[in-house]
Structure prediction request, 280 residues.
Amino acid sequence: MHIGGAESGASGFGRRAGALLGAALGWGLVEAGWPRLRELELEVPGLPPELDGLRIAHLSDFHLGVASPGTGAVAKAIAWTARRKPDLVAITGDLLTHPRGEPILRGLVTWMPKPAIAVLGNHDLAISRDPQAVRSDLQDLAPATLLRDEGTMLELRGRRVWIAGVDPRLIVRGRPKVDPNSLSREADFRILLCHYPRVLDALEPGRFELVLAGHMHDGQIALPYPGGKIRFAHLSARYPRGVFREPAAVMHVSPGLGTTFVPFRFAARPEATELHLRCA
Prediction:
């Protein structure tokens, strides 16, 4: 009688645990396909008065080419961006996890308002522990401009805006590196796009006013607690998401839109962010 009761209790616990796990996995799939479409006021020292109110759509980490609800999140984010018609679209890497996603990527890019500027991330070059990652190494992304350790000068609201883009090999150990400071040019306002947020630590003051980065996914799978959360993908990350202000520049780190390793997100919703730049 006692043994039977114990077996029944264990069986009930197993069923409850299984139901809880199933619910958690289900929610992870829902969250991965449910992008936050956010507008964010961002004060930037050195912003010319003519550029006050400039709108930049910051998108990142599509990870197309693998089965994930993130593909739907990317499509929703780009459709929202197209409706918003920002002054500039900036995409900070990890466009593809597998080359089979390239046709989808190129189709989505045609929806984007112009100008649209992009850089690659580590997954685009298969510099990753993700077993799904296969090298794509895009050479162009027309009609968007793809930057690889180079830049382009735009005229926005009558001012010269220099946008430089870093190749992901800049950061990865054992690969050829370029000093990101060398990508700066004389302009009224300068923006650096880099997949890796830690590029900010390598910048000298006066080179760029704004840095846009991704890579972190806000941890992708996280455990909230009062006042914060544990981000399992990047437990000790200095720049996990949001706005960071350092002497060198102001940086915005996108939570990204896709997923890696597993097709779930927990307490780390995908996000497309429209930055409204403001004079400090």
About this structure: The longest strand covers residues 36-44. The chain has a mean pLDDT of 91. The chain has three helices and 14 strands. The radius of gyration is 21 Å.
